[in-house]
Amino acid sequence: MSNPVTIIMIEDDEGHARLIERNIRRSGVNNEIVPFTNGTAAISYLFGADGTGAEHKGRALLILLDLNLPDTTGIDILKRVKENKYLKSTPVVVLTTTDDSQEIKRCYELGCNVYITKPVNYESFANAIRQLGLFFSVIQVPPAAT
Amino acid sequence: MLQALLLAAGFLVLVAVSVSSVILVNKAREQNSLLVHTVEVENQISSLLLEIRRAESATRAYQLTSAPRYLSEYETARDSVLPALEQLAKLVSDNPDQMAGIAKLNDLMRQRLADFARAIDSVKDNNVAASIDVLRDSASIETVQAITDVSRAMRVQEDRLFARRTANVDQTQILASTVTIAGSCMVIALGAVAVFLLRRSARVRDEAEAKLRDLAVTLETTVDERTADLREANDEIQRFAYIVSHDLRSPLVNIMGFTSELEELRGDIFRRIAALSRTAAFAPATPDDATAGAEPELEGGDKQLSDDFNESLGFIKSSIAKMDRLITAILNLTREGRRQFKPERIDVCALINGITKTVAHQAAEAEATIHVGALPNIASDRLALEQIFSNLIDNALKYLRDGVPGEISIEGRTKLGFAIFEIADNGRGIDPKDHQRIFDLFRRAGTQDKPGQGIGLAHVRALVRRLGGTMSVASELHKGSKFTITLPINWTEKQRDNKS
């Protein structure tokens, strides 16, 4: 691929991160995964030193986002990503333990593309991630903006 | 109490003053009449003396002139003397002293009149000298003197009486005025005391009122503060439960995830062991067989190991599943606690019939009949009511006695703005010592032969409380149970705010 998609994984629980990564790999997705365990690091990576996000102009990104982060909430990151002119077309997959319908609704309103509840049942979890892999393979990654 | 006493005392004083005034006035009147009587007696004495003098002067004039005019005057006077005397006697009949005087006067008068008669007769006989002698007679002069003395004595006596009676009258009048003044003073004093007491009690009442107002204001503030505190605490608990259940879930995902990874690994490991042992026993095989084959055949100690591994993993997984259910239950409860209730008019009968329809299959299996009586309609939250009744009906169906056809009845009535619903069954019942326990989260009672989390009744009670109602249970082992729910007929948002 000339312009491979980079997966940004923002997940504070390393166990979850590992499980997600394993399952993504199992589903045959070999894209680069950049993991972050807290919101601050993720934000500084996404928006760069100047906070504009211009660094990622033209790059194909996909964000896997946990809502419960130690230093900030995933909602805030989602909001900032979707408000940023360079990042707003980046697909965001919210992957979290919360299955509160209010929160799901809010995420979709803010522009999240997929909302996945982490099920305790491992089969469902693995399934969800694998389907995500499928999703990755068919997703229309936004063309590089010039 | 004191005021009633005062009033009674004032009344008594008034009565006493009035009565004594009346008595004294009557007494004064009597004494006055006695006084008048005395005066009359004196008057009568004077007129008696006047008459006798008239008779005498007429007699003398007749002696001098022999004119019949004087004769007739004499006769008139003579005729008046005795009636006058009788009149006097009548007046003094109550006084023995005076009666003695009267008796004397009577004799003297008669003697005198006899003298006059003789003198007149002598004149008529033209014996003027003899007539004059009659009157000049010493006896006659003595009679006159005696009359004067007696009448003076009587007068003196009457004067004394008069003086005494006057004194009496004065005394009575002084007494009367004293009594009146004293009574008035007492009444005024009592009035003053009453006014004072009234003022004091009014002041005390005003103070009490002011205090009450202050207290009411303070109480309101306190209640508001407490309510705010409680609401905050409640919100805090809700948030806490929500966060805890989420945060507990997160490690659970890991445990489950990596347990499953271990399970995968186990499969790989034991397949490899099987392949290795097979290679050792028979012939060399390609390592690919280890992964490609289905469930490997294990023997002896290896099989034992595999089984132990499976058992451990099984326990871990079932525990995780249970923990997940509990956390989900807490999450649902807190979510329920945060849901906004919307009061609406509800046909409770229709609502319950809807529930019984959904459990008709279960009821048929348990050979149970559900009887729905006449139920009052209420304004409340529909979803909450559905959950309340379906939980209770489910429980009733779930915990029937084996071999006894179930009978479940739902009755309702209203009382003082509340609707009371009773859900009764003839099931296995609940030991009274467990009556409190069954409403606690994750607690169950009796034989544990049915699946369940111990959430239903805790949830029902939380809902009933949020709807401003109460619930209770009456039950004994093997004698069925009756759950009683009391809900306000008209539930409003405001009530919820007050309660939550």
- Largest sheet entry of chain B: 5 strands, mixed
CATH topology tier name of the largest domain in chain B: Four Helix Bundle (Hemerythrin (Met), subunit A)
* Portion in strands of chain A: 15-25%
* Shape call of chain B: rod-shaped
Low-confidence stretches of chain A: none
**Strand order of the biggest β-sheet of chain A:** 2-1-3-4-5
Helical stretch tally of chain B: 12
Number of strands of chain A: 5
CATH class of the largest domain in chain B: Mainly Alpha
Q: Tally the structural domains of chain B.
A: 3
* Largest sheet report of chain A: 5 strands, parallel
Structure description:
- Chain A is built from five helices and five strands, in the order E-H-E-H-E-H-E-H-E-H.
- By secondary structure, chain A is of the alpha/beta class.
- In chain A, strands 2-1-3-4-5 form a five-stranded parallel β-sheet.
- The longest helix of chain A is centred in the last third of the chain and has 17 residues.
- Chain B has 500 residues and is an alpha+beta fold.
- Chain B folds into three domains: 198 residues, Four Helix Bundle (Hemerythrin (Met), subunit A) (Up-down Bundle); 97 residues; 160 residues, Heat Shock Protein 90 (2-Layer Sandwich), CATH 3.30.565.10.
- In chain B, 73% of the residues lie in helices and 9% in strands.
- Chain B is built from twelve helices and seven strands.
- In chain B, the strands form two sheets. Chain B has a five-stranded mixed β-sheet with strand order 2-4-5-7-6, covered by helices on one side.
- The C terminus of chain B is likely disordered.
